[in-house]
Amino acid sequence: MASIAAAQVQEVRSITRIERIGAHSHIRGLGLDDSLEPRAVSQGMVGQKMARKAAGVVLQMIREGKIAGRAVLLAGQPGTGKTAIAMGLAQALGPDTPFTSMAGSEIFSLEMSKTEALTQAIRKSMGIRIKEESEIIEGEVVEVVVERAAGGGGARVGRLTLKTTDMETNYDMGAKMIDSLLKEKVQAGDVITIDKATGKINNMPTSPYSHQELREILNIRCEEEDCQMSADALTVLTRVATETSLRYAIQLITTASLVSKRRKANEVSMEDVKKVYSLFLDEHRSEQFLKEYQDEFLFNDGGGDAPQLMEVSQ
């Protein structure tokens, strides 16, 4: 009895899982050359040269848009390569062309009607890509003026001043654009986009980073620049980013790291950050410096007379 049980266990352990591979997974195309002549063995296709050449003609017509909305019937005995040619045609048309294979048992099914089965197959085989192009104006709102028409009617007129990277432009707005502007609650300082074709306005409000978000960004930048920074130094740098700008604070990371390496330290300290902060001015302090010493600069605009250019005799 024990020997029989052992034999049964051995039989169960010997069972392995069999994974099936698609019968036409090796097909990569129709196996034709540039003149649509079939090669003997190419792209997984073998034989059926006349049928493949005919399929190549259909392929060329599809690429030229001369056979859109029509069907092609491949007739023949089972196992003569009809499915392989159909798949090769789909592969030759590119990865965006879907290929759907159906068996007769899927159509004649008790769970689904013939119409529903064919409808689902057609939907799977439809590869439609919609491409839409539009011209967009993007910029920062400088001024928004909305008022009633001069004639005293009910129509409203408006003017929008938008600043882009290239220029500052005034736009006259009609009732549709004004309604879109009011709906988006656009005000001076907002960054908006305008669709020139439809006049649709999208407001893209931006909110400043929180203190914790600034600290996290600076910490990520320290890791990116391989800079070891103490917690106190990171706190000071975060305060600098809050009071000045994030871009300025990020630029101080490398310089503070160089200062710490010069004193042969393993990490950036709070004193290192303070030192580079005193050496490199942010935008606001630079502006104050220029205003304070503008009279001492060459060609200043502080009210003094500009020096005359020196005449050089020949």
From TrEMBL:
Cell compartment(s), UniProt: Nucleus
GO cellular component terms attached to this protein's record: histone acetyltransferase complex; nucleus
Enzyme Commission number, as recorded: 3.6.4.12
Source organism superkingdom: Eukaryota
Residue ranges occupied by any AAA+ ATPase domain in the UniProt entry: 68-281
Alphabetic keyword roster: ATP-binding, Chromatin regulator, DNA damage, DNA repair, Helicase, Hydrolase, Nucleotide-binding, Nucleus, Transcription, Transcription regulation
Recorded GO MF terms: ATP binding; DNA helicase activity; hydrolase activity; transcription coregulator activity
Protein's GO biological process: DNA repair; DNA repair-dependent chromatin remodeling; negative regulation of signal transduction; positive regulation of DNA-templated transcription; regulation of canonical Wnt signaling pathway; regulation of cell population proliferation
Record field: catalytic activity: ATP + H2O = ADP + phosphate + H(+)
Pfam families: TIP49, TIP49_C
Signal sequence, start to end: none
Enzyme class, first EC level, given as a word: hydrolase
Family from the record: Belongs to the RuvB family.
Function statement: Proposed core component of the chromatin remodeling Ino80 complex which is involved in transcriptional regulation, DNA replication and probably DNA repair.
PANTHER family per UniProt: RUVB-RELATED REPTIN AND PONTIN
Protein name: RuvB-like helicase
Classification lineage: Eukaryota, Metazoa, Ecdysozoa, Arthropoda, Hexapoda
